[in-house]
Amino acid sequence: MKINSALRYVKNYLLIGLLIFFCQQAQIVGDYKGYAMSLFIALCYCRFNLAVLCPTYLAICLICDHSLFGIVYAITPIILLLIAKYLHYLFARPMRLPAAVGYSMLCVIPLAVLDVKSGIKLELIVYLVSQVVVCLLFCAICYAVAVRGIGRRLSGDETVGGFVFLAIIANGLYAIDIYGFRIFYLVLGLAIPYLYRNFSLPQGIVIVSGIAVGAGLTGVNLAMAGGIVLIFLTAYVFVFNKWIAGLSAILAHVICGLYFDVFAGEYYFHLIAFAAGIVITTSLTDKFINKLPSFKYGEGRESAKELVNRSRRDLSARIGAVSGVFYEMSEIYSKNVVRYLPPDKAAAGIAQEVLLKTCGNCINREYCRNALGNELNSVLEGVVRTALTSGKATLEDLPTFLSSKCIQLPTLLATCNHTALSYDIKYNSGKEMEVDQKLVAGQLLGVSDILSGLGEEIKSAVNIDDRLDCRIAEELGYSNIVCSDVMTLVKSGRYTVSLIVREKDREKKALTQILSRLVKAKLEKKEERKLPDGRYCLTFISSPKYTITYATAVCTKPDSQACGDTYTVTKLKHDKVLIALCDGMGTGFSAREGSQLALDMVSSYYKAGFDNVNSLMLVNRLLAVISKDNFSALDMCVVDLELGVVDFIKQGGVQSVIKRLDSIQLIESNALPLGIVEEATPQVQRQLLNVGEMVVMFSDGIMETLTLGGIKHILNCLSTLNPQQVCDEIINQAKAMGLKDDSSVVVFRLNHVC
Fold first, then answer.
1. Picking from 33-47, 127-141, 378-392, which range would have the lowest pLDDT averaged per residue?
2. Among residues 550, 553, 549, which one has the least CA distance to residue 728?
3. What is the rounded distance in angstroms from the CA atom of residue 417 to the CA atom of residue 384?
4. Which of 139, 446, 712, 745 has the fewest Cβ atoms surrounding its Cβ within 10 A?
C-alpha cells in the first residue's frame, strides 16, 4: 500500500514537472518566454509540497533560460512564496485567491525593474500583465482539478482557465523543435481520437480550440488554428466508426497541409507524426478509453442514476418491511387456530361435564358413587356418544340400573343432550373458523412472499447507459425521427428505453428497428403516453427469446345450451404466459360459471405473483368453501418465453401431450380436481420445449371419445405445425366418433422471435 502511494506521488510530480517545462517553453508575447511562474504560484495556492515543487521549478527554469532575466524569474517566486507560506502558517491564515494574485504581482516587479534600464516596452508590460492574468486563471483550473475534483461541471472562470491552460501547454509543445520535427503533431494525433471518443462535440470544440489557438499564436499562424479545428470536426462526423474517423482526420490534415498550406515547417514529418498518433489512440480498445477521464454523455446523469437506484433501495426496504408485517400476521393466524377434539374423542370430557352439572348438588351423590364407582363415568360416556351421534339420548339409551336408581333422570337426560348439542355446534363452528383462518393465513403468507420477491427485484441496481442514449438520439435523427429526450436503463442484461418523440414519429417502423439494432437485442413497445404538448413518451423493453402461437377448438355437448369448458391465454409478465383449460362439473351454464370462476381466480393469483403451488392451493380452498357441491378439473401451462421452459400444473383433468420433433411425450395427471377437498396439492412438472414443438391440452370429453391412443395416432399422422389445424382435426375426429360431452382442445407451439 505504501509502495503504491509512493509511486503515485512520484508520478504526480513528474507530470507537474513536465507541465512546468511546457509552460516555460511557451512564447506568446514577443521575445518573452515562459509562464512557469504562473503555474508555480497556482500550485502553491493549491497546497502542493513546496519541498519538491521549488527545486523542480528552479531546475526547469534555469535549464530553459540561464540568463540574468531567467535567474531572477526563477528565484523571485520561490523566495517570495516561502516567506508568504511562513507568514500564513505563523498567523494561521490560509492562502486565498486574492493573496495568490497579489503574490504574482509582487513577483513581476523585479522583472520590470531589471528590464527598465533598456526603456519601457509595451511588450514587457503586456507580458507582465499576462503573467498575473494567467496566474489567476491557472489558480482557478488547478484548484478545480487538484483540490475540488472537476467531476462533470466547470464554472465560467474554470472553463476559461482550462482554455488558457491548454493554449499555453500547446504553445510550449509547439515550441519544441527537434531537427525540424515537432512533438506537437504527435500529441495532437494522440489527442484527437481521444477527444471525439470521450467528449461531446461542444466540449471537444472548446478543448481543440484551446490547443489550436495556443499552437497558432506561435508566429500568429491563425490559419493553422483553423486547420486543427477543421480536422477535429471532420473526424467527429464519422465518430460512429473509430477507424473511419481516424482516416478522415488524416485526410483532413493532408488537405489542410498540402492544399491550404496551413502547417509550417517540414510538413511530411508532421504528417507522419500526426498519423502515428491517430493510429496509436484509435487502436486502443473502448474498455481502455473508457477508463480515461470522460465528460461526453451529458452532465448530471450519474446523479440521476444514483437517485434512481437510491429510490429503488428505499422502496425495496419499505416493501420488505411490509412483507415482514404480512408474514407475522400469517404466523399469528396459523398458530392461534382454535381446534376442538372430534366428538368421538371428546365424549369422555363431555360426560365428566354432565356428571358435574347433574350430580354436583344431588342428595344421592355419595350413594351412587359408592354403588357404581368409576362405572358411572363410563355409563355417562356411552349416553353422550349416543347424543352426539343421533342428536338426542332417550330413556331407552340408559342402562337399567341407572334409570331405576337415578332420582334426577329427566335432568340428567336434558343436561346430556344440551351439552352434547352445544359441543357439536362449537366443534362445527370451530372447524369452519379453522378453515377460514388457514385460508387467511395462506393468503397473507402468499402476499408476504410476493412482496419479498418484489423487494429483492427492485433492490437490484439499474445502469443508465449515457453512451447509448447519445447514439440513439443521433441515429433516430438520421431517419427523420426527432427524439427530444431519451434514457436507457440496463438491468441484468435487459434493456428498457424510454424516449420522447413527435406524434407523427411514434408509429414509424424504423423506430423499433433502430433501437433493436443499437442495443443488439429485439425490442418491443410496452406502452406509450401522450404528453400535454402533443409529443409522445414511448417505452420499449427487451423482447423475450421465444414466442408462442396458439389455437383453440370447442364443441358443446349435444342438447346442451352452453359448454362447461373454459380456457384462457393470459400474459403474466413480458416473458411468461399462462395457458389454462378448465373443465367444469356437468354441463350447461352452471358448469360454465364454475369453470370460469376457477379460471378467473387462478389468473388473478398468477398475475399478482403467487407461485404455482400457492396459487392453486388457495384457489382450491376458496372453491371448497364457497362451492361445496361443485368442482373443476384444471389443466394449466406456464410458459417461460425467455428460457423455453413449460411448467405443467394439473389439478384434476386428463393427460396432456407434447408433440416433440421426433416423438410423442405424455404428461400424466394424478391430482384431485379443484374444490373436492381443502388440502389438495397440485401436480407440477417442468419440461423444456424446442422450437417447433407443440403442446396439446384437451378436456375429458376428447379423452373419453378418442382415447389417448387415438389422440397419439392423430398427432403422428399430422405433419402440419399449424396449431389451428391440429385443434380442428382432433375435434372433427371426436365428432365423427360420436362425441357425447363438452369437449375442448388447446394447442400451442414454441417459436423463435423474428
1. 378-392
2. 553
3. 8
4. 712
Q: What is the dihedral of CA 465, 471, 474, 478, to 10 degrees?
A: -130
DSSP conformation class of 674: B
Q: Which three cell numbers stand for residue 82?
A: 516561502
- Separation between Cα atoms, residue 272 and residue 82, nearest integer Å: 46
Do 546-752 and 463-542 fall under one CATH topology?
no
The helix (run of H) or strand (run of E) holding residue 475 is: helix 466-478
Three-state secondary-structure class, residue 178 = strand
Taking only the tens place, the pLDDT of each residue in 527-554 is 899 988 888 999 998 888 899 999 999 8
Distance CA 245, CA 282 (A): 9
The pLDDT tens digits of the residues spanning 305-328 come to 666 677 777 777 777 777 776 677
**Rounded CA separation 198/188 (Å):** 15
The dihedral through the CA atoms of 65, 66, 72, 74 has a sign that is positive
536 vs 174: CA distance, rounded Å: 52
Q: Is the dihedral of CA 569, 573, 575, 576 positive or negative?
A: negative
For the chain, the maximum distance between any two Cα atoms, rounded to a whole number of angstroms, is 152
How does pLDDT run across 570-595, given as a tens digit for each residue?
A: 887 778 888 888 877 666 677 777 77
pLDDT band, residue 657 (cuts 50/70/90) = very high
pLDDT value at residue 589 = 74
Q: CA 185 to CA 212: how far, in whole Å?
A: 11
* All residues at 6 or more sequence positions from 454 whose CB lies less than 8 Å from its CB, including other chains: 319, 609
Task: Spell out the CATH class of 546-752.
Answer: alpha beta
What are the contacts of 59-67 at 24+ separation with CB within 8 A?
Answer: 60/17, 60/20, 60/21, 60/24, 60/36, 61/24, 61/34, 61/36, 64/21, 64/24, 64/25, 64/33, 64/34, 64/36, 65/24, 65/33, 65/34
Q: How many residues does the chain have?
A: 754
CA–centroid distance for 533 within its chain: 30
Residues 6+ apart with CB under 8 A from 608: 450
First-to-last CA distance in the chain?
Answer: 54
675 phi and psi, to 5 degrees?
90, -5
Q: Is-contact 416 379, C-beta < 8 A? A: no
> How many other CB atoms sit within 10 Å of the CB of residue 102?
13
Residue 260 reports pLDDT greater than 70: yes
HSE, side-chain direction, 13 A CA sphere, residue 184: 32
- Locate all alpha helices (DSSP H) within 360-408, ordered by sequence: 365-372, 375-390, 400-405
CA atoms within a 13 Å half-sphere pointing along the CA-CB vector of 651: 35
Q: Is the pLDDT of residue 732 over 80?
A: yes
Long-range contact pairs involving 357-366 (C-beta distance under 8 Å, separation at least 24): 357/415, 357/419, 358/408, 358/411, 358/412, 358/415, 359/408, 362/407, 362/408, 363/407, 364/405, 364/406, 364/407
Residue 299 has pLDDT above 80, yes or no: no
Q: Residue ranges per domain, the chain?
A: 1-175, 179-292, 309-458, 463-542, 546-752
The secondary structure of residue 255, as a DSSP letter, is I
Domain 463-542 has CATH 1.10.1740: no
Give residue 613's pLDDT.
Answer: 55
